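Lab notebook: predicted structure, single chain.

Context: the supervisor wants predicted structures on file for every construct in the current expression panel, including those that have not yet been purified. This is the next one on the list. No modifications to the sequence; it matches the entry in the shared construct table.
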Amino acid sequence: MSRAITMHATERPHEPALTCGDVTLSWQQFDRSTNRLARAFAEMGVNAGDLVTIALPNSTAFFESAFAAWKLGATPQPVSAKLPGRELEEIVELADSKLVIGVEAGRIAHRTCVPIGYVPDAEISDDELPDAITQNWKAPTSGGSTGRPKIILASNPGVFDTEAAGFSLPARSACVIPGVLYHNAPFSISSLALVAGNHVVNFPRFVPELVLEAVTRHRPKYLYLVPTMMARIWKLSAEVRDAADMSSLEVAVHMAAPCPPWLKEEWIHWVGPDVLCELYAGTEVQAITWITGSEWLEHHGSVGRPIVGRMKVVGDDGQDLPAGEIGEIYMLADGGQGSTYRYLGAEPKQLNDTEWESLGDMGWMDEDGFVYLADRRKDLILRGGANIYPAEVEAALEEHPAVRSCAVIGIPDDDLGQRVHAVVDAPGGVTVDELRTHMAERLVSYKCPDNYGFVDDPVRDDAGKVRRSLLAEEHS
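Prediction complete. Output recorded below exactly as produced.
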């Protein structure tokens, strides 16, 4: 991975490599700054095989820190810059991180820490470094965990093809990737886009107008999205959307959360059925599905067929289910169990004594092998004996033009077992009666929320993630 950056810097030294907000680095600047930073990290004790925790906000410094680690044969371990102290300490302890970037010295006992804004001594050389290949190219934490943290250590080393880095990325083009970098998908895709020689455009925070401006200005072939971003962009005025030039896009891929069908259809019509695609996988990447907009129109609601690994649907009795029946989705990597990742701090959920593993998602498959998601098993709401999948209710709620984001949770109820509670973020204002009328036109009555609670801030983060267990505690 480090050799790729040096190669691009040699071939195109003054072309842009990386933009985040108002800061742009050329390939030469990016290569030299990461050389110097890598040497500074080495002086702090970082060696090949070590994990380096990066707790920085979105910035060019985030990427510089990651590539500096790779240039030493170390493994970047990205986390949120907003992690509470104890949670960060637990992750660092689990990773046994040699260096923590983005926190003040002394904050974590017995660990070397450097703060946000750290700049290495200018006297340190920025000359080319010898090749070093990390044996585990990344180590993200699991998303949305509310218990003890777990780290997902990628099994594959830091070696990639600069002409075909993965994720259907182009080579030597531009990629607009407005994701939070501590999440696996935007971190992985951005890093590999750089390996492939692309100008990566990221943002300090997601602002829908700025994303459209970046697509119009930089003419990227590739755009990364999550449904939350898609919804916020779509709810801009038609005048703002129409002013954006999306014609350069060859791939606009969304992932990380279920996409409401109405929203997916709008984007298919906007950017084109062969441009809008969806990827479904866990950070563990035992298996990956992919679907184009054209395929989705023929298999409405699907996340595609496996293109890597295998998937099957299993019932509560552990037996494979036929097409059309909802069960738990199990996955098996092409190389067998353990070939794509290993956990630090957890054990995989296996199907009996087999190598098949589950991430907790529920769904079904059709006769053609296309996969459809219902929801995560732990998020399922049981109301009066009926199964209610929050994603379905949320998709209907988000059709209302006043709803910016929402989450649906199960609240304990002495009579029904659970009642359906919707947490709604609607900055422009909306009444409960308006939402009840809206939902009654879209869902059967037992699926409609029994209660509504309103919040002032987005329910989901920019990665489309929501911590339902915390919401349940707050709204019970």
